[in-house]
Specification:
This protein is α/β, with parallel strands linked by helices. Helices cover 37% and strands 18% of the residues. The longest helix is centred in the first third of the chain and has 14 residues, at 52-65. The structure holds iron/sulfur cluster.
Amino acid sequence: MNHVFGPVRSRRLGMSLGVDLVPWKTCSLDCAYCECGITTEKTSELKQWVDIQEVLSELDEFLKENKNINFVTLSGSGEPLLHSDAGKVIDFVRNNYPEIKTAILTNSTTLHIPGVIDSIMNAHLIMPSLDAVSEDVFIKLNRPADGITADMVIEGISLLVKQFRGEIRLEIFLADGINNTEAELSKLAETVKKLGIRNVQLNSLDRPGALPWVKPLSGKQLLEAAAYFENPEIITRNWNKSDTSTRQDNPLPIIISGLKRRPQTLQDIMAVTGFDEYDAEKIMELALRSGSVKTKLIDGTVFYTVE
Ligand code: SF4
């Protein structure tokens, strides 16, 4: 199989079968953190990068024989929405395998182009990326093809939010010293709020990126970054296990800095810290006892707050 890969078991998507719609490594960005390596074909051209009939035949062949797939996901070694017929894959699955959901991982650089969002309206889940709002940070981290700007990416995501009826999860990749500065995180958080996006996923490096200067955030830095957003999910693997200092250090100052921004439920605190219910309850009990945190009931739900 040339275009279909996996399936892989993923916590978020269950059993997910990948579909690669561009030759390695064709992308409109050349992200310094890309785990697929340097972009060899940096382009913003939408076209039939691979034969779509070949893709659909491979997919059909696989799905006929394998009934345990939860998601077909357009992803792979480049930007799937550079393929002008990406939507045909979504429609094919919807029409022929209605029990399977479809997802698209996109770098958001083509969403502003008329017709692109229309073509993928039948997807169940779209996961657009937005790593930078400032053009200089965008250029440094995402290294776009000529003519692509951070504003274009934001405009595309804004159109997606307005038009798409399925689920949207926005992914933000954080690189130490590049886009985790207070200035950039504040701008990112403000933009996410303006866009009205509720699901934010924070990611950082799990494996070596394309360029050696990209460094992952530590667990503590991820928690600090998470405090800027409402209910973000930290999705980088084992971030709270590999960075043992985070588990051993008292995370309370970081929790409190988040609570100063807004009241949070225990579930919010669990999402931000990565703690399970037992640990989160324990630390909040200590905080309540010390008087640094209070609780209040809002619509029958307990919120932790800092006066
Ligand atoms: S958008 Fe994705 S595939 Fe393209 S360079 Fe960035 S990380 Fe790699």
